Amino acid sequence: MSRPTGRVLTLLELLQSGGTRTVAELAGRLGVEGRTVRRYVDHLTDLGVPVESVRGRYGGYRLAPGYRLPPLMLSDDEALAVLLGLVAGRRTGLTTAERTANETASAKIRRVLPRHIARRLDTLLEALAFTDRPGEFDTPDAGILLTLADAVRHRRPVSIRYTDRNGRRSERTLHAYGIVAHAGRWYVTGKDARIGEDRTFRLERIADARALPGSFEAPGGPGPAQRVLSGFATAEYPHEVTLRIHGTAERIRAHLPVGVAVLEEHEPAAGQDRAAERWLRVELRAARLDWLPPVLAALDRPFVIERPDELRDLVTALAGRLASCAAGPDGREPTS
Questions:
Q1: Nearest by Cα to 226 from 203, 257, 184
Q2: Rounded Cα gap, residues 55 and 15, in angstroms
Q3: Which of 15, 101, 246, 336 has its CA 20 to 30 A from that of 293?
Q4: Please, which residues have CB within 8 angstroms of residue 84's CB and are 6 or more apart in sequence?
Q5: Using one digit for the tens of pLDDT, what is the confidence trace for 226-267?
Q6: What residues contact residue 165 under an 8 Å CB cut-off, 6+ apart?
Q7: Alpha-carbon gap, residue 241 to 306, rounded angstroms
Q8: Which of 6-20, 91-105, 168-182 has the lowest mean pLDDT?
């Protein structure tokens, strides 16, 4: 690569890093005079790269949105970061299009990587392991995702066609507060205008989304992520569980996070340490109860089951099994 060509590409990389760059700054970075910088800018413009000239005391050059994606210059670390992001997104299911788009994007970047960077990437991928199994997740439509994001930003109502988990279809008007990625899924949370209540919807179950006239005020209180997690904890499930646990909120949350349980925290009594253990009320809903006794045992804190009775029976049964295991095969406690 000739030196002028290399400097033109370096100029493009500098402009792609964002903001307005003065002629003096660019000249210093490229090791040339100001008039040479202007000539290099003309080269980029001839190639179809949309470079804007900014006048004034702090003027200079910047990239403008163009009708096509300009040549993209990535450093070694940036290329690795982009490819790792694609790998992680495919692994966790947080992709916004079909798997093919993820794979073709990866292939395009890898095809132009210098050999030493490609070797570094292959070495990293060979050494990389995940603690979870890859999931086969449905992915939301990119157009729907972008429509909802625009509705969130501009606080505009949006009409969606939605199919719930029981296969029922409906059309709703949503005041979308935010989009949340959680546990390999995409969600949008907001107020269902018809019923006037907050709801959370899985994006891959939305068949169509279109913006509507008007606007709405953003609500105060918890952010979108907190609202989604709280919605999980209060979702309609067969079993309603109420507990009282003696411990700190931090310790309880380590085993029963926001997406699982609602924790009623009260202001401590006068003179009581806020971080001290005290009785806290915990409520949750569950499709099954068999996972709860081990969680309560792992808490290792005093607790009282207010409801349901079935959970008491499961806890008693677990306690019996643990006592039996501790006693040893002959019914006596093992000795060291």
A1: 257
A2: 16
A3: 336
A4: 124
A5: 888 887 777 778 889 999 999 998 999 999 988 888 898 766
A6: 205
A7: 8
A8: 91-105
